[in-house]
Structure formats: structure tokens, C-alpha cells
Design goal:
2 copies of one chain form a homodimer. Chain A is built from 4 helices and 12 strands, in the order βββββαβααββββββα. Chain A is mainly beta. Chain A has a single domain, classed as Electron Transport, Fmn-binding Protein, Chain A (Pnp Oxidase, Chain A). Chain A has a 7-stranded antiparallel sheet with strand order 3-2-6-9-10-5-4. In chain A, strands 7-8 form a two-stranded antiparallel sheet. In chain A, strands 11-12 form a two-stranded antiparallel sheet. The interface between A and B is large, with 95 and 95 residues.
Chain lengths: 193, 193
Amino acid sequence: MSKVIWKPGTFIYPLPVVMVSCGTMEKSNIITVAWTGIINSEKPMCYISVRKERYSHDIIEKSKEFVINLTNKDLVYATDWCGVKTGAKIDKFKEMKLDKEKSKFVKCPSIKQSPVSIECKVKEIKNLESHDMFIAEILSIDADEKYINEKGAFDITKCNLITYANGKYFALGKVLGKFGYSVQKKSRNSKKK
Amino acid sequence: MSKVIWKPGTFIYPLPVVMVSCGTMEKSNIITVAWTGIINSEKPMCYISVRKERYSHDIIEKSKEFVINLTNKDLVYATDWCGVKTGAKIDKFKEMKLDKEKSKFVKCPSIKQSPVSIECKVKEIKNLESHDMFIAEILSIDADEKYINEKGAFDITKCNLITYANGKYFALGKVLGKFGYSVQKKSRNSKKK
């Protein structure tokens, strides 16, 4: 075997690293989370796992709402900072010069500077050991108009998303292929070549 | 508001795109999954969500075991192919020229070509609408020795991981920062500059 057995650990990478906003327009907080993902497609459902002692944990537990804000190159510093600081005594929106925007379906603000904000309604809280898992329904995808191209499609290559792997934030690099490319028939043009 | 309200959708990106191996050394299958992530840190727990009609779904439901194999640039084609093809009548290991390696704690093989394989034991199956969510304990992280540096640390920048966002596979790009960099004091050297 060419592989070394390590102890069990949380080694699924690369992961999204999102800024979760919670609370209300008046009293809100931001927590950065990498333990997040999609769990169901129809209807769209996701989760975030949050340590029980985090300041945002109780806010989300009570309000049963949060907004997932995707992060990009311009937001790396704020993403890191909102992950290591506690919002108990500071206003993270103010400190990081982030703007609040009203959501349509939840009371929590979204972050204006984020390219895509995902409004979520908690359906179940699953008590695990270090973390609680907030299982949620996705109510709305709020996308910054500037990334929507002339065909009405969201151009994800334009918004400079970032990803997290083993303690580091990475930019996204080259596009290596499209979903399904391995089974697509070559076009006439490429056949001629 | 600068954002446009879209209908709800599964728009958390970028995501890991992993090859999940299941079954036994003799009769195994591979399914590519992006609906995966960490849900608890201590003890380490993760999930994969799989459509109920997929061939791997029943295998994992019965055996209660699977292995998450991280993917890299060399595996993009196989990653895409294993996501669109069904293993009902084909041997995906053979077709994609992937080698099986014995796992330590589960009966499923891991994929030798993957830089990191994560052995998982299903603890709960959560029935959602389109997907079932397999909630699992991480039993072992099996890492390819060639990515472990002279200090005994896994060098994630060396293994060319890939990520998935809105229908496209991306290489990882530049490192933008380390976890906690926003609150680190500058070293004496950098202060002098």
C-alpha cells in the first residue's frame, strides 16, 4: 500500500469557506464556516455545522434563519477575520466595512459584497459532539447582477471565488472541464482537427 | 438591492468533487459526489448525499461503508466519467484504469491514484426527497506518502486538488492566505520593511 494510515480527521478538501450572516438588520453577526454543503437537490437543502460555544450558534438556534454568503478574492481577509473573532462584543459588519442588505425571506441581512447570498430556513438541529448541524431549506439564491451575462446565466468564472484546504485559502485556477465532458461526442469541428 | 432574487437552488460553490468507492475488493463501484462535507470535528464525521436511484445507493445502504477519495488534476476525466456513468453493468475501476487498494477498517477498496482516501462507517441514513444523506464516522485518513514532506506534514499544495463550481471543474490557484493570518502579528522582519 502506498498510503500511510493517519488518525481519523476532518480531511475532505477543498471546501467552500462561506460567511454566514445571522440575527436581524439591527443586531447581526457574521461567522465563517467551512463545514457546509448541499444535502438534497429537489427541494434544495443545505447545512452548516457550528461549534456550540460560538456566539452565532445561539442566534441561529433561536431565530432558525441564516444567510450563506459566498466569498471571493476581495473578501479573503474578512473571511479569515470573521472566522477567528467573536461577535459577542464587536460589530463585524462595521469592523470589516461590509454592507448589510435586506433579505427577501429571512430577517438576517446578507452581505452586499458577496457575489451570491443564500437565504436559509432551519428545519432541524442535529446535536453532534463538538458541533451542532443546522439542516436548512434554501429559500432563495440572491445573485449579484454584475456576474449575470447577456444570456441570463451566472458566470461563475468571473466572481473569483475562493476555496479552503488544510489551513489555506486558495484562488480558483484554470477550468479543467465541464460536467459531462467525458461522455460528450466531439463536435464536427474538433473531429476534423 | 444589487442582487437579483433567483429561485431556490443548490448554489453553494466551490465544492469538493470526490470519488466514492463502495462494495468489496471483488465487487466494487465508484460514484462521484459533490454533495459531501464535514459535519463534526471531534469526533470526525462527514456525509455524502446520493440519489436513491443510483447504483451505489443500495450498495452503501446495505454495507454501511464507503471510502471518499479526493480528486486531483490527473483524475478529472475519471471523476467526471464516474459521475455520469452507472456501475450497474460496467467495472469503473477497470474502465478508468484505476487500481484498488485494500482499506484498513472497511471492506471497500480505496482508489490508489487518489492522493487521500477517507474510510467511513455509516451511522445514520437520513431520508430526504431526491437524495438520501449518509451520515458517517471517519475511521481513517489514508494519505499518499509522496505528499508528506520532510517535517511529516501533508503538503496540500503539491497534490493538485480540483474543485467543482456550477458545472465546471477547476484547478486550485494561488494561495491567498493561511487560516488566522488576519489576526497574526507581523514578524520583526516584516515590521522593519
